[in-house]
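#struct-pred

JT: dropping the chains for the assembly here, can someone run the whole complex?
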Amino acid sequence: MDRGLSRVLFVDLSAHRAHVEERPELFRARLGGTGVAIELLHELCPEGADPLSPENPVILAVGPLSALFPLASKTVALFKSPHTGNLGESHCGGRSAVALRLAGYGAVVITGRSDIPVYIVIEGGKVHFRDARALWGLSSSFTVGRIIWERESGSGFRSILRIGVAGENLVTYANVVAESYRHFGRLGLGAVFGAKRLKAVVIIGKGRVPVADGPRYSRLYRELHGRAVRSELFKKYHDLGTPQNVRPLNAIGALPVRNLRENRYPDEPPFTGERMAERYLGRRLACAGCPVACIHLAALREPYPDEPFFYKTTFVSYDYEPIYSLGTMLGGQDPEGFLKLMEAVEHLGLDAMSCGVVLAWATEATERGLISGADTGGLVPRWGDYGVYIQMARRIAAREGELYDLLARGVAAAAARYGGQEFALAFGGNEMAGYHTGPGAYISHLMGARHSHLDSAGYAVDQADLREGRKRSPGELARALFAEEARRQVLSSLVVCFFARGLYDLGTASRCLSVLGEDWDGEGLRTLGEEILRRKYAFKVRAGFDPGTLHIPARIAETPTPFGALDPAYLREAIAALEALLVPSE
Amino acid sequence: MAKRLSVVDVDRCVDCLLCAFACARRFGEGGLAGSAIAVRSVGGMERGFVVIVCRACADPSCMAACPTGAIRVAEVGVRVDLERCTGCGKCVDACPIGAVFWDGERGKPVICRHCGLCAQFCPHGVIAFVEVPRG
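RK: done, full complex below.
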């Protein structure tokens, strides 16, 4: 393994100082990414720490495959989540993983709180602390990126991670935006940045990554590249991107519509990958090191109302999850309205998924008379009314008044005050992902290692079971979820994108490690995945997570899944079985 | 017939950097330090990219600028004699398209040799290895 990977950069924002520690044993034992980051989090996050206090560390980590193999394009962030109060984990593509590896680090740990807003630049073995007071409060995260891009225009490969006003204002599901169109989306990393007065992190890398066996590395790369570009996945995500999922999920009745009152659109949804591509697709982008190019940008051409023949064309990134949360969940019929809301959410720096679920709850709560114009400041949310939703998103980011202040903490917080818990679609404090596929999806939401869409092994297990007509007992489902989640911990420690999970079976992963001089067999990796998963769960428990107290909103049992109506008793039984697997008996 | 690398359709570029990584693998290594091809955005990723690589000039500015004669014209493109190169960097300044890269760790220039490896890994038809017309 190259020495650079085992170097951990510690940045102390309180003192405006940084230092490096070599941790070769840690990286040898836990690979990198999630495996290393969870150990650092256990070490560095004091028990009982307030997620928005200076002591909560932000840990960014890459792994041995980063910048070296196809689709090894993700950076893992671990922190204590201000949204759930326990484990925060988010993965981001773009250029960050390559930049961090080439800057010569395996991980960065950011602690403390700056006296003034700053952004930091990690470059050439140094950390620069730059005054960001003039960037604080800028209405668009895009503008922040643009300014920093111009200002830090030296040579090298750059990644710019920044927050919007939602992060500054500590909205507990504020995100961190990378390269304009990728995100550390979930669980509030943006608020942790905001609490540290950290506006952005610039990572500049230009180094080389030595490889133990160069000729074998080149041959293996060629083989994996060939497999990647010939795969079904490549075609699926290259052509339409993740929104290709809209049509099949709608067909099986697994697409959450109107706050999950329905599970499909009666006709073709207005936001299918096919329709979006035909009408709006303007450009595709890739993360560094990935041939797939799943990032799809819509070109939105809008006339100015005050002057004829005056237009602006903006680019808005669209993916399956925002289409679900800001599109179908809000009962949208108008793709342009959806794109405008998406754009606003990007500028504000909100997690699109949580934001959509919050707006869906507010719409239903309005219909049921739980909240009124007096609470909303005169705005009346109605299904598909994007003009109102955009204004509400802005007020959430600004935390204007009691309702928006609560909505800025998620649907669970809002429902605790105003009612409507039965249709407040949060699980363990985090808003649901776009898969009403069956019991697996919800157990993953409730118990999963990472409350996010891609780590939710549940929907994948559901869909495989559905295809094969299999019905599992709660214990069998728990075992399947445990095995799949454990395998994904290996992927996120290597670190490769979960879209590459078909490419990197454990045997292939061990071959990759072998050309890097690391000796792992498939069984060793499998066991490691289980250990990492248990360490993550242990952090959650340490932070107060208790599966016995989990609230299951009635709505998910009312609207049928492709497996029929969900049985909460079945879910509880599977949760207990999964807990037994996650907490090893001594 | 001799071939050279050519940027055939830059508008298809998705910024995956597979070309630049392929270039580094010539030496069996990862990263971008030894890479002779680069992709840069033209001011915001949504506006597209430029691919920067040697055009194999007939009368290369880099060669003219080299004070030690370390750069010489080859059948296609140029070759750098690293023994003769003093690392002065004048070649970098001389190339108007920025295609002479700098290996900061070694203090030497890096210029494309037109081997075509990168083109084999471009998934989207941005670059190609094409025959050089004679004459």
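JT: nice. Chain B touches chain A through 26 residues (CB under 8 Å). Strands of chain B lie at 3-7, 30-31, 38-41, 49-52, 71-73, 78-80, 101-103, 108-110, 127-131.
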